[in-house]
Design brief:
60% helix, mainly alpha
Length: 180
């Protein structure tokens, strides 16, 4: 089944990623995507695959991870056992569209769902992920550097004029953003 393939072949890859994009993160995005799929009445299996693949290209570079993740999905031969070309294209586009810094809104409800699910805005989560990313990528920097980098990033992304977009404006994310 698709569930076994994802659980055995895709999700385990996240164990090697940075702390902000680990197995816990992908499982949370999957759970949130499935809740939103039910709320919006769309194909839950497609949402499951999109969420599972959304950050799979991270080892190829953070900046282009969304494009690499979509490419990995498109090139995955096993996925063709469960989905046709049209569905695979919709899922790949959704993955490409999930970034918080994307210039354009998602092209489909599937892109909106994964983008919304990827935004865990409980205040402790963006704070923890920002610190984890900084420590992973700037291990030789001192406390003051990390403090200033964290404040700057949180302000640029989550501040009143931040670049974060909530395509579905879920109540959970709106409340989290207000608290943050």
């Amino acid at each position: 089944t698709i569930d076994l393939y994802i659980e055995n072949s895709i999700i385990p890859q996240y164990a090697a990623f940075d702390e902000a994009h680990n197995v816990e993160h992908v499982n949370r995005v999957i759970d949130e995507s499935l809740k939103l799929a039910e709320e919006y009445g769309v194909n839950p299996e497609m949402c499951y695959v999109i969420a599972a693949f959304h950050d799979i290209g991270m080892p190829l570079g953070r900046k282009e991870h969304h494009l690499n993740s979509a490419k990995i999905l498109r090139e995955d031969r096993a996925i063709r056992m469960w989905f046709n070309e049209k569905q695979i294209n919709i899922m790949a586009e959704a993955i490409e569209d999930h970034r918080a810094s994307a210039d354009n809104p998602p092209r489909s409800i599937y892109g909106a769902i994964v983008a919304e699910a990827d935004r865990d805005l409980r205040p402790e989560v963006p704070l923890r992920r920002t610190i984890q990313y900084g420590l992973s990528n700037y291990p030789n920097e001192d406390y003051e550097f990390h403090k200033q980098r964290t404040i700057q990033h949180l302000t640029e992304k989550y501040g009143r004029n931040g670049y974060l977009k909530l395509p579905l404006n879920s109540q959970t994310n709106i409340e989290g953003l207000e608290q943050l």
